[in-house]
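Before relying on records like the one below, remember that each one covers exactly one chain. Contacts with other chains, cofactors or solvent are not represented anywhere in the record.
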Amino acid sequence: MRLLRAVRRRCPSTRLEPYRTAAQPQAHPEPHASFAGPRQALDWLRAEYPALLAIVRSDRVPGHVAYQLVGSLWPHWNSFGIGEEARAAHRIGLTAARGARDRAAIGRMLVNTGLTELATDPRHALGLLFEAKEHYAAAGAPRNAASTIHHLALAHEALGREDHAEALWWRAVAECRHEGEERTSALALTALAQRANNTERYSEGAALASTAYDTLILNSPAPDQHGAALAQTQWARAEAGAGNDDRARDLLNAAIETLSGLGASLPCGKALMQLAAVHIATGRVPQALDCYHFGAHLARDRGDMDGLVSIQRALDAIPRHQPTA
């Protein structure tokens, strides 16, 4: 119980997800977080992760405690990767929320459980996310229902329905803006930027990603630094595709600095791989190697063997006798 009291007292979510509490103030606001910043909060959550996960799995823990703890662990999984532990914990959390008939918790657990299933069972994820949207609509929560359109688009993308996903993202942008849910509208814009980049519409990709970044940082009462950094990576991809390599490097360096400062290991590693590719394309092999080495350090630290394999393949693909800058 000491750990449960610490979670409630220290409230890591107020540092890791400030935009959530700003957008949806609670009837009984959480006390101020006792962390100096998001990196310290995430480090604390990571250190306590095994114990918190054991509490979630325990049959002796009340249901409302289980789903609250699952929710508090989302920033950890978002930063270090979603695996079977996260999927199993969310199934427990969703069952507990249903048992408690906590309407707000059911909605959040449906969304997050759906997101954990995207990579392994996108059809099941789609069903959970559709249920979440219907749940929010029935509960009279149009802002949450609008946000879920973005998540439904992710599921359709995972099922290979890219055109339908793109249409849903545009709908999410419009409905989220109408409901005042600017953060999710920006996340949808970032997804649309990725879609534009995938089809080599780089000018459109840059415009969408830059608008997403501005929304998340400049037009928000509680900036989402993590989401803004992801927007920068798509913005950089568009700039690189258009041949603006210097601009792409600047954007990626800024994103990496933010993600590293937040302790967001997995997205930071992906941005490093992206920056390394830009360096390779412009003959900057030593700088690319620095990126790969930092990325490998992060992957080893989070136990990501697949990430290490990807880095080794990228290293093996570097042309011999590349000129350096």
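The first helix runs from residue 2 to 10.
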